[in-house]
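Lab notes, practical 5.
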Amino acid sequence: MKFNQKMSVIIACIVILTAGFGHALAGSRPEIRFGTLPVLQALPVFVAAEKGYFTEQGINVSLIPFSSALEKDVALTAGEISGYFGDMMTAMMLNANRVPIRIIATIFNATSDQRLFGIVTAPGASLRTLHELAAAGIAGSSNTIIDYITTRILESQGIDTRTFNLIEAKRIPIRLQMLLSGQIPAATLPEPLLTLAVSKGGRVVADDAGKGISAIILAFRTDVLTAYPDDIRKFMVAISKAADTINREPESVRSIMIRYCRIPKSLEKTYPVPVIPDIVLPDSRQVQDVYRWLNDKKLIHETRVCKRIVSDGYLP
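Output from the prediction step:
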């Protein structure tokens, strides 16, 4: 079953099973139930909560942790959370499956001197060039943001992606274990696992630094945006203040990063606290590029312009 078909089945089941559950927002003071994942790029969200910046803005925010993106997507579809943190592709897939959701900000992206994803070899791998590794096999997850990023990285190096051999390994911890044990020649991994693989003898052969292909976004259900626009603006004020704190006083948030972002034990003291780029609206060029990729993969069957998935007016 293809990914979009699976999503349709999940959505149909959720509609049936959750009828009458109610929305995540209730009462005169709305509760913003925001879905998170234990990843590095969510650090501004965790800092805003831990430092009390949401409370300062007079809003009621509950962070709802999920261990997988699929769990988070199901909760959003069911209306059990107001918004979420994640990749741009997920929002597009949900929207294409008639889940009313809009992206309001890009909270993180790779910069020229800060990568988010990369292709790394197994320790002691005999293959040296990216062309060789692409043909031999790079582990990842098909029809996901990892697949998209791997494809775009390879294309940026002049590699014909029709010759790319994707080794299916959807769960990142298993992918890392396969890499470190030499079962696969290479894998696409996110930070900080990319740095961990290097510390174990791996070698990064290409990454997403400076390519503008790795936007991490904040998205909300459209009913929440319509009902409580001022609260969502205050939410973004708190997030922006958290980003400023991270950039000005990075060591003051290291304990928060360690607690919430799954930093490997061996890297807790040395892994750099990331620099948070300016929080902006998504780049329309990347929005259209992701849509084109999804269409080419036949995961969605429509081409939408940026304004149909992105909502302006919520940034400070």
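Observations recorded by the TA: The chain has two domains: 3-109+215-308, 117-207. The first helix runs from residue 3 to 17.
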